[in-house]
Amino acid sequence: MADEHQGRDTWDELSASERTVAQYLASAPAEQLMFASAQELGTASGTSNATVVRALQRLGYAGLPALKRELAADFTSALAPEVRLQQRIAHVGRDLEDIWNDVFDETQERIDQCRRLTSADALKRAVEVLAEAREVFCYGVAACELAARHQALSLGRIGRIGRRARFVGETGFALADPLLTLGQGDAVVVFQPGRRLAELNVVVERARAVGARVVFVTDELGEVFEDRVDAVLTAPHTPTGNTNEALTGLVVADALVLALTTLDETRAVEHSHQLTALREQLLAQKEPRPRKT
After folding, report:
1. What is the largest CA-CA distance in the chain?
2. What distance in Å separates the CA atoms of residue 165 and residue 135, rounded to the nearest whole number?
3. Which listed residue, 44, 80, 100, 110, has the most CB atoms within 10 A of its CB?
4. Which residues pair with 216 in a beta bridge?
5. Quick one: angle between helices 247-263 and 120-131, nearest 10?
6. pTM score, two decimals?
7. Angstrom distance (rounded) from CA 206 to CA 200
């Protein structure tokens, strides 16, 4: 483990079972920890999944995904992608029940950490930014595109935001065109877990220059951008690749939309009614016409 010194510094504060976990984590191979669930680590160390989580928090980690993310940084730089894939497949094996459980275990770990790491104050600030926005630009590229598109579509369906939300996914020179239309009173929701793309600085600085506000949904870039944006919401990304990168971003997007819906229930219900009516009209157009006899 990269943070063995943290274990030594806090050793006296650990319970006997937490020390057992710390000793196991320090001695286990990195690739074994990368793909293990909290339940598996509890069994391997002779403790429990709850003890594993508590021990990690005392050692300075937000949870098991945080430890895996740290391990993954060295893992990724040291091994080629095809080697990492081979090791992932080797760990999962061919047992369908194990595969099913591995995916659900990592999903649960990421969602639990997502719930725990975003404060109520940060969520409140983000909701205020979107509620007051003239138009919302939802920015995401590559794996983050799914969450950004989902956010834009969902915001467009509720009354408070209405049609004033759109997806932006351009990179390079092409990004200049949508940024040109960003103005005072607008808001930007950026979905980007860890990679510090050059475009992110341009998006944030453009927003600041024109008087727009920014909500950043990220995992590793919170400290980098927190002084330049209005709210940071934590969405842990996958340390193993077993679950979709956009998973926690989608959950955060849904929380924001639901919070905004409650601010103007009457208008939201009216928009929902209109949406349903339009869908019914569109479906009716596709019904086969009776043949003439």
Report:
1. 89
2. 5
3. 110
4. 190, 232
5. 60
6. 0.70
7. 10
